[in-house]
Amino acid sequence: MTHAPDRPANRLASASSPYLLQHAHNPVDWYEWGDEAFQAARERDVPIFLSVGYATCYWCHVMERESFESEATAAVMNDRFVCIKLDREQRPDVDDLYMAATQIMTGHGGWPMSVFLEPGALRPFYCGTYFPPVSRHNLPSFEQVLTAMSEAWRDDRDKVLKQATAVADAVTEQLGSTPAGAIIGAETVQQTVGTLLRIADDNLGGFSHAPKFPQPVYLDLLLDVRRDADGPTRQAIDRVARLTLDQMMIGGMHDQLAAGFHRYSVDATWTVPHFEKMLYDNAQLASTYAAAARLYSDDQYTRTALRTAEWIRRAMTLPGGGFASAIDAEVNAREGQHCLWSPDEVRAVLDDDDAQFAIDCFGLDAEPNLQDPHHPDDAPRHVLRLRERPDAAANRLGLEPDAYLARVDRVSQRLLELRRRRPQPTIDDKAIASWNGLAIAALADVAELTRDSDTLQAAAIAAEFVRRELVENGPSALSLHVRRSTRAGVTDTAGFLEDAACVAIGLIRLWQVSRSLGTEPGDSLETAERIIVGALDRFVDPENSRPFDSPADAADLFVRGGSTYDGAMPSGASHLLRALVLLADATANQRWLDEAQRILVALSGRIAESPVATVNSVRTLYELIRQGRDVEGSLRSQGIEAPMPDQVPPAEELPEIAIYADSERVQLTTEAPAAIDVRLVIPEGHHIIVPSSDADDLVQALRIDVLAESGVAVFADYPSGDPLDLPGFDRPARVLHGEVDITVMLERREAPEGLSPTRPVLAVWYQLCTETECLPPTVRELDVAIDLVDT
Predict the structure, then answer these.
(1) Distance (Å, rounded) from C-alpha 637 to C-alpha 197?
(2) What's the rounded Cα separation, in Å, for the pair 28 and 585?
(3) What is the arithmetic mean of pLDDT over 683-695?
């Protein structure tokens, strides 16, 4: 997305990020994240408004058009705030920090992320995502939010700072704390696999209902475990993995003409995508399909892996051989406009026989599958998808598979030529180190599968680009550091743990595959080893082996975070674990397995808490177990005797709330909400705080919601409660005690931009208190299955 420079440029005109450059002619007096902005806010004694997004984010574009290009809105922003624009892809550590605050404060997250900070310690006191220009859909207008935050800072400073302290403390607890160690081992792997098989969609593949995200880290673990699984487990994995791989492969999320995968599918059938294409998605999916092709000897998976690798080489290669970050979702302010078709457009470019073949192949004889919800006056169009696997289609048409695919390729090329004459989306042309590392590994994986020398050569050229542009000497001759990104010859921002780990993975895989194919491997392995030495020095605590995302000297963070969550982009910690295992295999040096085992021990508490959320780390745990490493023994030798995650007994010494729901399973359609009645039985002598607009943040108020973004909105009819004077509260608190009945309404909703939804899990947040003390905050899952059903 680009804007004509019809206004004077602001400070962002000198930025290296394409996302920031998109805002260089806004009337907003934007600053980049850094000391200049912080000092300006402190001198003016005004809050900071932090807007976080990325170049290919659709709703980021929308909020810019609606608000940041408005002279009136910009005047309010400039007068009352110091405004900062941040590219989340350049500073993932800052993004993680304030996304955690946003999710804690609102229960969801996404981009654009809109956060208000006090200027002293940069702690957040109010968080949100997209705000419209006028109030709608229960969202205040952006100007209403700006006014409210400015007035709160001016008139109620103490309360604002108290709120900032509470939110920062919660973020610190979530990102900065290290749970006590727990025993993890083979049972942890079994539990993780069992959960993935249980939450999988048995009809359409994937691990959620609409919207559907590819989640290759889930598939990677299943494919790894399948090698050694017993008969029933193997059959269950085959059913889930192959159904998901097949449905993604034939769906509209997979670009059937140009190859490559779009970000995710907005529906349950993998048909209509969110049209941006990310390098990290395609790199991971190329590797996953290559692994599946080897495991199942499936030619269609090989074809998909190779076409995805070819798309990376063709569409994403930058001058010098590195890879760009992403391709935008929109053209002419319409999402996916360049990818949509009508039968008449197909007939206009193909002869009658080929046109009829294409119409049958891509499902164009059905009703159009996309009506742009943001532009209802636009005519409905088709996203191209296959009706079935190509081998099944060939059999249906009485053709040999090779002949069928040759014809598909021929008509696709003709259609693609027409598509390329349409207005094209913009490309975020910065090269991010970690994403390039994943792409190098993916090309090596595909080259190993196909023995294609061109693919391997592209990986080698990209590796040389990364070493030349993004790798620098460390403090010792044995270490190297990796920078975050480069664009147009400008390299800025120190790298993060994921950058070092992913680049090392790419270089190790390049070395391994080069040797296996009889090609000179060069010094890739030595470079990778020096990068790992630098990463262990910069990002891993020498006392307890806990990995952090940022170096210890990062001065612009109020807490040093160490994420373990493996989402669309797995955590830096999990990538480091994989890099260490690969390095040990390549060098036969046990030191690296020892390092991996120590880090797993440090992460064991987090893995035990949420094995599916740390699935990429569980994958390394499985690999170490396969190699005969005694992870459980290492934990026990340190005095850790906590039982396995699925055997943890309740803490009987603490009083507990009894929670009952009147339904074990509900169906939620796009047209009708569902209702659940929940009863809480609070033990005698205790109470919980009622949620309210003026509730004090020192205590967790009652909240019933989904655990993570899942396309479900939750509305609870909370009782008003009874007033009670409590220490630390400015006014009487409203509390609940005894038996409490609450009606909970569930509704379908569109997922926030950029967030990966999960299967809906309903939970209750609360903090049980007496009149003199409070127990730790608690989250309890409700045993209610929520089925999302399209009507």
Answers:
(1) 33
(2) 53
(3) 73
DSSP 731-789: SPEEEE-SEEEEEEEEEE-PPPTT------EEEEEE--B-SS-BPPPEEEEEEEEEEEE
Q: What is residue 653's predicted lDDT score, i.e. its pLDDT?
A: 47
Phi, psi for 326 (deg, rounded to 5): -165, 160
Length of the chain as a residue count = 791
d(CA 17, CA 64) in angstroms, rounded, equals 16
**Two structure tokens written together for 432:** 């991010």
Which DSSP symbol is given to 176? I
Of 305, 301, 286, 318, residue with least CA distance to 506: 286
Integer Cα distance of 215 and 456 in angstroms: 25
Q: Which of 681, 684, 769 is nearest to 724 (CA)?
A: 769
Closest CA to 280 of 416, 428, 143, 480: 428
- The secondary structure of residue 203, as a DSSP letter, is T
Q: What is the pLDDT of residue 648?
A: 38
pLDDT beyond 90 at 724:
no
Of the listed ranges 559-568, 728-737, 782-791, the least confidently predicted one is 728-737
* H/E element, 461: helix 453-470
* Contact of 740 with 97, CB cutoff 8 Å: no
Asked whether the predicted pLDDT for residue 272 surpasses 80, the reply is yes
Decide if pLDDT at 697 tops 90: no
Q: What is the DSSP string of 561-598?
A: ------SSS--HHHHHHHHHHHHHHHH--HHHHHHHHH
H or E element that contains 678: strand 674-681
User: Hey, is 206 helix, strand or coil?
Assistant: coil
How high is the pLDDT of residue 694?
A: 42
Count Cβ atoms below 10 Å from residue 270 Cβ, excluding itself. Answer: 27
Q: Give the position of tokens 């001065």.
A: 555
Tell me the residue ranges of DSSP E strands in 133-232: none
Region 635-662: mean pLDDT is: 64
Identify the sign of the CA torsion 282, 287, 291, 297: positive
Asked if residue 725 has pLDDT above 50, the reply is yes
What is the spatial distance between Cα 171 and Cα 174, in angstroms, rounded to a whole number? Answer: 5
Lowest-confidence pick of 75-89, 122-136, 359-373, 729-743: 729-743
The DSSP code sequence of 481-520 is EEEEEEETTEEEEE--HHHHHHHHHHHHHHHHHHHHTT--
- pTM of the predicted protein model: 0.80
What pLDDT band is residue 698 in, cutting at 50, 70 and 90? very low
Compute how many other C-beta atoms are within 10 angstroms of the C-beta atom of residue 749.
15
Q: Are 613 and 564 in contact (CB under 8 A)?
A: yes
Distance separating alpha carbons of residues 612 and 589, to the nearest angstrom: 30
* Confidence bin at 202 (pLDDT 50/70/90): confident
pLDDT per position as a tens digit, 591-619: 999 999 999 999 999 999 889 999 999 99
Q: Strands 658-661 and 674-681, how do they pair?
A: antiparallel
In 3D, which of 596, 580, 603 has the Cα closest to residue 629? 596
**pLDDT for residue 716:** 87
Residues 6 or more apart whose CB falls under 8 angstroms from that of 446 comprise: 286, 287, 290, 305, 306, 308, 309, 452, 455
CA distance 87 to 95: 8
Do 780 and 260 contact (CB within 8 A), yes or no? no
116 φ, ψ to 5°? -110, 125
d(CA 216, CA 282): 10
Q: Is the model's pLDDT at 20 over the cut of 80?
A: yes
Question: In angstroms, rounded to a whole number, what is the distance separating the alpha carbons of residues 646 and 572?
Answer: 26
pLDDT mean over 541-569? 91
Evaluate if residue 677 carries a pLDDT over 60.
yes
